[in-house]
Amino acid sequence: MRDPDPVTFTQLKQSFPDSFYYMGDPNEKQVALTFDDGPDPRHTSQILEVLDKYDVLGTFFVLGARAEAYPELLQEIDEAGHDIGSHTFWHPNLTDDDDEEDLVARLDWELTQTERVVEESVGYKPRLFRAPYGSLNIELMEHLTERGNIAVGWNADSQDWQQIPSEEIVDILRSEISPGSIVLMHDGGNWDQTITSADALDTLIPELLADGYEFVTVSDMLDVDRAL
Asked: What is the pTM of this model?
């Protein structure tokens, strides 16, 4: 049995160069904003408003359970032209088990259920996938590759999940974003969490635009189809 423990993004990229990405081309002055754990009525609409204000596209890695609960928000994301990817149905840690066969079966169930919900709402099954906590191992990546998914990590972490002030998020991302960055942010969280991503983006986006950055979806950055 292969080691079920998670491996680093660098190791995953080396082993799966065509199906795992955590950044784009460092020679292209592009940035991909990504949002996990939505759709969430407290935060998703605020983020969509800021993106629309600056005519910027992003990628939303949705939870199937929340997409099923808030289909109108999922449709709003799609109608605005953003990418939709899968972030599983229930947000489990996919490597938190010793039985690798069960891990693959759990991953497949999470993917299938989320694909069903997304397809029912917006008409396509998402090819893009982000694992909860970014936690993947070789066996899970093999399964994702076999079924045609593109797994997406990140190389710039906003740390917005720590409920820090928007000014801190801006400072963190100013130092972490570079050409080709895939940025981790959140448009959903636990019901007692306060996420300040929208306010941070309202400051950061115009700065990056003025610096010559182009905001793109993950599928455009990687030049891959967003649908299975």
From this structure: 0.96
